[in-house]
Amino acid sequence: MRVHVLPRRMTQSVAALLLTVFAPSLLASDFLTQRVMSMEMARDIAQATVDACREMGYQTSAVVVDRGGHPQAILRDSLAAPFTIQIAHDKARAVILSNVASSAFRANRDDIRMEMNHVDGILVLDGGLPVVVAGSMVGAVGVSGAPGGHLDEQCAEAALDSVQDRIDFAM
Question: What three-state secondary structure class fits 114?
Answer without folding.
Answer: helix
